[in-house]
Amino acid sequence: MSPLFPLILLHITVAAAQLRPGHYSKTCPGAELVVRDVMKKALIREPRSLASVMRFQFHDCFVNGCDASMLLDDTTTMLGEKLSLSNINSLRSYEVVDEAKEALEKVCPGVVSCADIIIMASRDAVALTGGPNWEVKLGRLDSLTASQEASDNIMPSPRANASLLIDLFGKFNLSVKDLVALSGSHSIGQGRCFSIMFRLYNQSGTGRPDPALEPKFREKLNKLCPLNVDQNVTGDLDATPFVFDNQYFKDLVAGRGFLNSDQTLFTFPQTRKFVKQFSINQSEFFEAFVEGMIKMGDLQWEQPGEIRRNCRVANSHSVNTF
Length: 322
Fold this sequence. Notes:
The chain has 322 residues and is mostly helical. 45% of the residues lie in helices and 4% in strands. A two-stranded antiparallel sheet has the order 1-4. Helix 2 crosses helix 6 (114-128), helix 13 packs across helix 14 (269-280) and helix 14 packs across helix 15.
């Protein structure tokens, strides 16, 4: 972890008082319906895209707060976050947010921020795949810039263990329970062979597989990800990758976690109790997940902002800048 990490976090604040449900009730009353309609179409077109979009909230809010900085394309003077270590060849489906923004600009031009679209779309990705639905707080502004360095310094690796993750989440005032519940976002979607090769062939530099892997599951992963594999090949993060449920936690208990950062939640004492709890009681998982998503959505960075017209590019002037 970079020594810059604690300094970066000094500027993170919880700005819940500035955010509220129904923020667009007068200025763009159909905003949430527009976003959900786009997400429904994305589900039909490519079910996996919902998991991809849902993860945007994590990759956005943890880096300088929830400000849509991760959506900005690189410029001649700025290295954005799309090519950061945690995002390159990993984050995808940016076009879904583009579609939502385009639809909103037709009905309410210059009103709905890209940062709020991420929050709405993440909630919809969960609800449309069988998970809980909840009321989101809105009113965020979009950043004027992005930082690849900040993303590299903050976002955890798939190799991360529970102890590192507890420390990371704690710096954002997210509890151990929040960490485990939010890790349940891996209830849907897929991960790359790149992220698990060391688990299969050289865990902790031993030249051997991770002993926490259940043998038959390890055989399955060996077939999916042989040593000579294209490491962008993907595998399911749990046994029901298109349904948001508590199967993810059942898989961890059985030693079938895809990522090291997932399986370590069961092998580490501080997090194991929550994994067991959520594997038994799906309702408790859903409740904790919603609480964690709302808390994460409250993270804000004290900086100027605007309502972007295009989520990939900062506006060329500052009419909507505050």
